[in-house]
């Protein structure tokens, strides 16, 4: 089969690789019908997430048709059309039983690698996202093996198109959880979202669905801010005005009640901190550039929430913890517990509350993936979201 593979930092290719097989009786095989490039895939491309190996299959946003199931799979049937959460969960451990699926104790066989790096227990496994998170093959391919198949895949109702539900695999639940983590008081709270990429777009629209009185989206790219504005958000271009002053002016001087960092470890920005982050990341002295996180802490109102769906890879430097402590901020973060959002967000889609396909700007063949990784990373051609057809 064909698949998108990591060929070293900065190099993505499409190669012919062996078809996947069932390895355990709880596995299923999926024929992928649609897959997407996520912003967090760009961190892999750039080599800032450790433990990638040449030939690793990428992709954690995918859906398709069930073509084979293991003997212990009870829920899924061959022929069903499913979306598959990006994180892998056993459904039986204590975190899974509490709905904390991304913290699964049993799905990451390489957990000791992560524990050695972080000095703490690891999260669960992820599709196509480094050996640190299990070394699972990704879904930017024609077929994929899905472990714990009775726990993750969610059957898609008839009459719903791939493009309407594909993003239930990651970015829609990720944006929704980020907004939910804010504990928004409907009709009162102002929410600021740093980053108008795909997760930022869904975080902004989710905050509105949860009743935010006002949502302000911050970015530097006009096309992304225009998309956020079409969804009902106010916008702020940090290259045209001071972001901290701009947020104070828009909130009567108190700052946003909640701030969502939908950027993560490769933040752009300006100032001494941003320059130092860039130099140190290039020298491999730090994993993360945290300008957006600094701004989130600095701008958030006293007693507010800083919600962090953006990915961070390791140790951070020059984080203004003194400001966070002085203001009594609450931090909420982590990989999304995708599984628990599939049913309620599918109902939102079926009810017409949102059509997630609004975020798609590019549709292409799997063979075009290397070029579109570059296009997406370099913010060319107004690229915001790429969907790939593995069979075109």
Automatic annotation (TrEMBL):
GO molecular function, a single term: oxidoreductase activity
Q: Does the keyword Zinc apply?
A: yes
Gene3D superfamilies associated with the record: Medium-chain alcohol dehydrogenases, catalytic domain, NAD(P)-binding Rossmann-like Domain
The record, for SUPFAM superfamilies, names: GroES-like, NAD(P)-binding Rossmann-fold domains
Which keywords describe this protein according to UniProt? Answer: Metal-binding, Oxidoreductase, Zinc
- Please give the cofactor(s) recorded in the UniProt entry for this protein: Zn(2+)
| Domain Alcohol dehydrogenase-like C-terminal: residue ranges | 198-266
| Domain Alcohol dehydrogenase-like N-terminal, chain residue ranges per copy | 25-152
Entry-linked InterPro entries: ADH-like_C (IPR013149), ADH-like_N (IPR013154), ADH_Zn_CS (IPR002328), GroES-like_sf (IPR011032), NAD(P)-bd_dom_sf (IPR036291)
**PROSITE patterns (alphabetical):** ADH_ZINC
Can you tell me where the transmembrane regions are?
Answer: none
**PANTHER family linked:** DEHYDROGENASE, ZINC-CONTAINING, PUTATIVE (AFU_ORTHOLOGUE AFUA_2G02810)-RELATED (PTHR42813:SF2), ZINC-TYPE ALCOHOL DEHYDROGENASE-LIKE (PTHR42813)
- State the similarity comment: Belongs to the zinc-containing alcohol dehydrogenase family.
The protein in question is named: Glutathione-dependent formaldehyde dehydrogenase
Species this chain originates from: Deinococcus aquiradiocola
High-level lineage = Bacteria, Thermotogati, Deinococcota, Deinococci, Deinococcales
